[in-house]
Amino acid sequence: MDGEKEIPDFYVILVEPKYGGNVGAIARAMANFEFKNLYLVNPCDLDNECYARAKHSSDILDNAKIFKTFEEATQNVDYLVATSSIESQNNKRHLRNSVLLEELTDKIYDVDGKIGLVFGREDYGLLNEELSKCDVMLRIPTSTSYLSMNLSHAVSLVLYSLYVKQSYESREKINIGKVEKENLYIFFSNLLDIIDHPKHKKEKTEVMFRRMMGRAVLSKWEYHTFMGVLSKSINKIEENSKKK
Question: Residue 89: what pLDDT?
Answer without folding.
Answer: 43
